[in-house]
Write a structure and sequence with these properties.
Blueprint: H1 2-14, H2 22-27, H3 35-40, H4 56-78, H5 86-95, E1 98-103, E2 106-110, H6 112-119, H7 126-139, H8 141-148, E3 155-158, E4 161-164
Parallel strand pairs: 2-3
Antiparallel strand pairs: 1-2, 3-4
């Protein structure tokens, strides 16, 4: 059955449907197919044991090699080029934030990701507020505030929300 499929594939790849009649096609056999074409479809046989796992490594290595070859061929064929990469730039831009000293112990923090965190917070829920504080800390807001000169008790404004600055892990 495999040989018949190889012959059929060879005929499909190398002849127009008008070149040969049905009788000509049925008379073709494996001997008439060039060996270099057959080599493309040669499938090695691996002896494996489910009980002892003998031969499994060889099979896995062969399959991995074939997958690598096919992916390499696809990469060369498809050569994708992008005019612009939006996602990476957007993420990088969103991670930026500014800390501004308004004066009299009042600080304004602005930036897309930070403002989005505040908008998503339910301030009537103590757990949500603690979660926001940990997210701000992970984003580096507390560290930047301390580096800029903010101290415990200062007022921090993000959008229309204000907080009393209470650093979680920073010794202020």
């Amino acid at each position: 059955a495999l040989k018949q499929r190889v012959v059929q594939k060879y005929i499909e790849d190398n002849f127009e449907s008008t070149d040969l009649s049905y009788a000509d096609l049925s008379n073709k056999n494996v001997d008439e197919v060039p060996s270099e074409y057959l080599d493309k479809f040669t499938i090695p046989i691996f002896e494996v044991s489910a009980a002892t796992h003998a031969g499994v490594e060889n099979l896995k290595n062969f399959v991995a090699q074939k997958v690598h070859e096919f992916r390499s061929e696809l990469a060369v064929e498809q050569e994708i080029s992008y005019d612009k990469v939006w996602e990476a730039r957007r993420l990088e831009r969103d991670q930026k934030f500014e800390v501004e000293n308004i004066g009299s112990g009042i600080w304004r923090v602005s930036g897309p990701a930070i403002e989005r965190m505040v908008m998503q917070t339910e301030f009537d829920n103590d757990e949500a507020v603690l979660f926001l504080q940990s997210r701000l800390e992970k984003a580096g807001v507390e560290k930047r505030l301390v580096e800029s000169g903010a101290v415990a008790g200062d007022e921090i404004r993000i959008l229309e929300v204000s907080f009393e600055f209470q650093p979680a892990l920073w010794d202020v």
